[in-house]
């Protein structure tokens, strides 16, 4: 996602995208809500970027109430659930953050999850998003850290760790070829500070994923969408098939991705 004509490797228009987004929601929503809950009050105005299936926008709609406002933005918002779209305080917008204007603020919260690392204009977007904040408002950017070789904590198959490592290596190469910046998660903090946001802090979280649950289903969903690309980046098809089968077994446990969540605030007088 580095130019206006390029497309995100895992865009919402692909068959199976809904399953992938559901897995991401199951894995990440609890920690996201714990992070943003103290930042949202009744009547607040919130901007959700990369809305996906709308699960975070749904929570925000409940939190801000009918007197608040939630703007949910996605390059392809077709998978935002009807239940979210029906809320009177929710506005769903189709926007390309590389080329289209940002929604009009001000917002008390701007939240982007697993999004900016894929955008070539990520460094310019941070100050632009900071400029949308109301005094005292917060910008929250969540990214997965550099996805190096995955750690398999338990498996009845001795080869699972190597298969998972090969998958992760091919995945990183695939994303890199599309313009993903694997260092972005650790650069967000400095970018927010440079945008003159205050009280910037970063929280890093991870947890284990058991075979058959959402975290281990996620590579199954992803690899089903981009099988040819993964093979093109060196992953053997037989290895991929074996890994997909093993990740469905509850005896397999892997360490989940590190989520880097960075929060910065606009000063009241800023």
TrEMBL record:
GO biological process: methylation
Keywords: Methyltransferase, Transferase
One Pfam family per UniProt: Methyltransf_11
A GO MF label: S-adenosylmethionine-dependent methyltransferase activity
Domain of life: Bacteria
InterPro entries the UniProt entry points to: Methyltransf_11 (IPR013216), SAM-dependent_MTases_sf (IPR029063)
Lineage of origin: Bacteria, Bacillati, Actinomycetota, Actinomycetes, Micromonosporales
Domain (Methyltransferase type): residue spans on this chain: 47-141
Name this protein carries in UniProt: Methyltransferase
């Amino acid at each position: 996602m580095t130019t206006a004509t390029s497309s995100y490797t895992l865009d919402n228009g692909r068959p199976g995208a809904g399953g992938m987004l559901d897995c991401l929601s199951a894995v990440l929503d609890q920690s996201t809500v714990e992070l943003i809950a103290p930042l949202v009050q009744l009547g607040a105005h919130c901007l959700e970027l990369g809305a996906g299936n709308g699960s975070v926008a749904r929570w925000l709609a409940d939190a801000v109430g009918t007197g608040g406002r939630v703007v949910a933005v996605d390059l392809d918002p077709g998978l935002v659930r009807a239940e979210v779209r029906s809320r009177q305080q929710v506005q769903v917008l189709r926007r390309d953050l590389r080329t289209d204007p940002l929604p009009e603020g001000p917002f008390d919260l701007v939240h982007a999850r697993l999004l900016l690392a894929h955008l070539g204009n990520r460094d310019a977007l941070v100050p632009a998003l900071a400029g949308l904040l109301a005094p005292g408002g917060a910008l929250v950017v969540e990214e997965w850290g550099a996805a190096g070789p995955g750690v398999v904590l338990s498996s009845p198959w001795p080869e699972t760790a190597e298969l998972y490592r090969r998958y992760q290596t091919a995945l990183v190469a695939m994303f890199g070829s599309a313009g993903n910046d694997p260092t972005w998660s650790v650069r967000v903090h400095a970018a927010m500070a440079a945008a003159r946001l205050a009280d910037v802090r970063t929280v890093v979280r991870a947890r284990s994923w058991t075979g058959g649950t959402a975290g281990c289903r996620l590579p199954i969903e992803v690899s089903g969408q981009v099988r040819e690309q993964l093979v093109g980046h060196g992953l053997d098809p037989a290895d991929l098939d074996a890994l997909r089968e093993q990740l469905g077994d509850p005896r397999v446990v892997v360490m989940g991705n590190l989520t880097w969540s960075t929060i910065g605030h606009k000063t009241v007088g800023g």
